[in-house]
Amino acid sequence: MSKIISYPELFELIPQRFPALLVDRIEVCDEAGKYLALKNVTVNEHYFVGHFPDNPIMPGVLQLAAVAQAAGAAFKLEGGTGTPWVRKIKKMRFKNPVLPGDQLIIDLTITDVTEKSAEINAIARNAHGKVCSIVTLTLGTLECTPFVPTELCPVPLPEFAEYKEKVMDTNAISASIPHRFPFQFIDNVIYMEDMHIVGEKLVSINEPYSQNYIPPSPVLPVSVLTETCAQLGCVYMLAQPENKNKIGLFVSIEDAEFFRPAVPGDLLTIDFRLAFLKSRLGRGVCKVYCGSEIICELTMAFALVDKEA
To answer: Which Gene3D superfamilies does the record cross-reference, listed alphabetically (predicted)?
Structure first.
């Protein structure tokens, strides 16, 4: 017989807390390895203030976060140990937007479970049955909790050290993209030429997502790291004069791998190279570094739409 898990039992399975907690209820289904998760998306969700103020849409990466949290709960219920963490995103497709007033229902299957890893397939739909996203990922565990940095200010790769001047500061970035607090993540752009943009993200304990993602060890969520990459790509596309009055929407994430968490005190250098840019569609490869150490790499695609859409 299926079982519904709600609070406070859910708190024992999911370490995230406000504002990073994105699951309201989980159903353990009769079929082995099958779970359903629910997230009620209310108009009072804090991220709607910054994504996007005039066209509120649940960020695609928070659909990813909801899937990852449901997967982490399933992982523990299936006998996994340690702190669940997304290691790889094999493929994620975004089909339809999630809007205020929607109920997001995640149909999740967990397989190949070991103490330290599992494979996840999930489809997220709204309450009307419309598919919002499809994701295949590999779940692992954080072996280093908390992660302990070894340098105060890691030395960047030589190619990034050459970019000494800011091309765009936060004011210029805000003029290019519609994202606002608490969902704007690019602090500086230090290079932008010929389908290539390099930006910086400073990770601080004062950011709400850093505090409450996996307490008491503050790390930047995988979802926010992915969103940071996407925003940098959008900075490039929306800085082009022909794209004025557009907004950028996620289309897909592919071949994403996360090597270690970003933590407060890190200065992340994001290297985004567009492989394809035509009309309103862009696709590129992004690598994120802390000093000379690579944090993650991924391929993503996004589309530009009119703000009124």
So the answer is: Hotdog Thioesterase (3.10.129.10)
Q: Phi and psi dihedrals of 112, rounded to 5?
A: 50, 45
What whole-number distance in Å separates Cα of residue 227 and Cα of residue 60?
8
Residue in 35, 31, 96 with CA at minimum distance from that of residue 63: 96
* pTM (2 d.p.): 0.92
137 Cβ contact list (under 8 Å, min separation 6) = 67, 68, 71, 86, 87, 88, 89, 90, 92, 119, 120
How does pLDDT run across 49-82, given as a tens digit for each residue? 888 877 889 999 999 999 999 999 999 999 999 8
Tokens of residue 84, six digits: 């669940």
- Domain ranges for the chain: 3-141, 158-306
What are all long-range contacts of 7-12, with beta carbons under 8 Å and residues at least 24 apart? Answer: 10/73
Tell me if the domain spanning 158-306 has CATH number 3.40.50.1220: no
Beta partners for residue 38, in sequence order: 25, 105
- Judge if 3-141 and 158-306 fold alike in CATH terms: yes
* Average pLDDT, integer, range 227-256: 88
Nearest Cα residue to 69 out of 183, 203, 212: 212
- Give the end-to-end CA distance of the chain in Å, rounded to a whole number: 44
Fold classification of 3-141 (topology level): Thiol Ester Dehydrase; Chain A (3.10.129)
| Cβ–Cβ < 8 Å for 166, 175 | no
